[in-house]
Amino acid sequence: AQSVTQLDSQVPVFEEAPVELRCNYSSSVSVYLFWYVQYPNQGLQLLLKYLSGSTLVKGINGFEAEFNKSQTSFHLRKPSVHISDTAEYFCAVSFTSGTYKYIFGTGTRLKVLA
Amino acid sequence: ETGVTQSPTHLIKTRGQQVTLRCSSQSGHNTVSWYQQALGQGPQFIFQYYREEENGRGNFPPRFSGLQFPNYSSELNVNALELDDSALYLCASSYGPASGYTFGSGTRLTVV
Fold first, then answer.
1. Does any CB of chain B come closer than 8 Å to the CB of residue A98?
2. Which of residues 15-74 of A touch B (CB under 8 A)?
3. Alpha-carbon distance B14 to B110, whole Å?
4. CA of B72 vs chain A CAs: smallest distance (Å)
């Protein structure tokens, strides 16, 4: 069975500081990996995805993530955060075919402080 | 791109009632999935439809049912509502596993 663990439920960080949101997954088969952002009272917006190839993936809004197969991790990073990055961030995995449902982590609330 | 649109945005129902939520997929997407997101939790997979057929289901009881129409729009129906059904219901569409899903803004269902 697949599972996703986001170890940090909340991450406070000062504006313009770097941030890393951690995601670890467990799966016996190949998966695709995704990060989504959810602003209050809104749906989820795709930040970036890893399908194959280069392990460093760049996404929107200056975010990037690195896939580490040996550590089964897919951590999200941003070198300098803004107040507007305050939101809930979800890591997800999916099968690569068939019923490619998402298995989501429980989310990390990023709070950027002025 | 028109994105994924859901209606209504908010809904209040009484326990035991039935509800229908609607979703219009993004143009060109033939797969739609529904997720339930309880407060403070990650979304949980309810089911997926591909070309009008259900092709995957999560751990939800049969009173959760759905439809996908020829234009790839979709409905989620919930019968015999329970208080624990109160949640944000998200619809997402896709044209393949590598593309990722595009999510709607959700329907906030409150059961009283």
1. yes
2. 32, 34, 36, 41-46, 49, 51
3. 8
4. 17
The string of DSSP letters for A61-93 reads: GG-EEEEETTTTEEEEEESS--GGG-EEEEEEE
Q: Do B42 and A43 touch (CB under 8 A)?
A: no
Residue with tokens 């219009």: B24
Chain A residues with beta carbon closer than 8 angstroms to that of B58: 101
Chain CA centroid to CA A81, Å: 15
Query: CB distance from B56 to chain A under 8 Å?
Result: yes
d(CA B13, CA B112): 6
pLDDT one-digit tens code per residue, A48-100? 999 988 999 999 999 999 999 999 999 999 999 999 999 999 999 998 777 77
Q: Which residues make Cβ contacts (< 8 Å) with residue A94, sequence separation at least 6?
A: A31, A32, A34, A100, A101, A102, A103, B97
